[in-house]
Amino acid sequence: MPEFQTSPGMRDILPPESARWRRFVDVFAQVVEGAGYGQVISPLLEDLGVFQRIGDATDVVTKEMYDFVDKGGRHIALRPELTASVCRAFVQHRPATPWKVWYTGSQFRYEKPQRGRYRQFDQVGIEVLGADDPNLDVEIIALGWEFYRALGLQKVRLLLNSLGEPADRAAYVDALKAYFEANLDALSDESKITLQKNPLRVLDSKRPQDAALVAGAPKIAQFYSEGAAAHFAAVQAGLTSLGIPFTVDTKLVRGLDYYRHTTFEYQGLTLDSAQNALGGGGRYDGLVESLGGPATAGIGFALGLDRTLLACDDEGVFAPPATDVSVFVVDTTGGAEALAITTALRAVGVSADRAYENRSMKSQMKAADRSGAAYAVIIGSNEVEAGVAVVRPLRAERTVNPDGTDGDGTQSTVPRSDLIDHLKKAIS
RNA sequence: GUGGCCGUAGCUCAGCUGGUAGAGCAUCAGUUUGUGGUACUGAGGGUCGCGGGUUCGAAACCCGUCGGUCACCCCA
Fold first, then answer.
1. Which residue is nearest to the C1' sugar atom of B70, using CA?
2. Which of A315, A344, A375 marks a domain boundary?
3. How far is the CA of A120 from the C1' of B49 (A)?
4. I need a surface site. Which of A36, A107, A350, A409 has the fewest CB within 10 A?
């Protein structure tokens, strides 16, 4: 074991996996930019208060934040999520509404690491501030859905719920609290604690002991105001009109306190239940106001990279891209030719690699094979003398000489002066 | 934060009831002194996560610790 390793919950993303991460973001950007969303890049660090406005009943804020006092005496936190940062940016810059933005980046939560759950984790997401239209809820949910399709994922389930207006939600919370308190004996000890902090969250309990009680709990639908019911109905109608299947799950309350009205979650059906939430979001009218801005409607979602990629692995889609180079230069004369040729190839847009340390031709040919290159350029003393280069296709069928030894295949000899043009044509 | 399981070469793992470490893959080289993908041969590479204890002797047993994993919790 080396002396230094990554901190718990932190990891290195190495090639070729790192290329897949970048492509993941590219695919996401393509989907959402096609719908008018622009990227917002916000700081990793924010004033602690920005995140405290998320709510004091959520562990993300109360227990899991990385925070510290900087050299200027400011109380700073590493962002545990991005929605609050986006809202803060909105309040600070006051862009025209509806403000449609997307983002990607790392977030930090001090949790016990597990597969699909890291202390530094990456998400992509979108937010729209300043529009209360149920059509927007549908657009957002549909974009997430479309993104999963773009990756190739099939086994994703969309769960949908509405928490109603703030007053509806408050009334429901009271009713839930009364219900659970009346049945306190049947509740697990853990849920008793949860009940004190946030009765809604008891609905999330995965303990078998709580299952029956949770099933018999009051349903949010009974508490919807007329407006909330109409909004939710419009969202469902919209999704249906787009042919997006969904399941209404009245137990879907989501973690962060700021949600109201529409909430939704995308579940990966191939993943274990503890980590099956690929992404989720909802409406959070009121968050901008709590950060000192005007009353502003907001809605968005965030999707976890790690879990989504785990789901991709399970479904055998969106594999890490090949990092193959087009041409590999084998030079047994010391390496200067390889330097010149690779540089010239790259200058005309042909990707090229080479071996180093003047290894044997066989060794260099092996490296050429591993590089995934379509062609090897071979330069030895004979070629230098004759002013030519051998171009050998690496993916062609192997040929055999009459005496049974390996043939030269379809390799050809081209004048050194024509080499770059020759290869450029061959690649295209 | 709580609990279960795990921690041996770069990777995946074997190592029986304690006698100072092995395989496959990968890497490098040779068989082929100018030609890859196959085959064969060989080489390098490990304070057996770390610390302490038991023992004549520990990779193996005990304790602690760190890390991973799974469940709870939380959430993406």
1. A114
2. A315
3. 23
4. A36
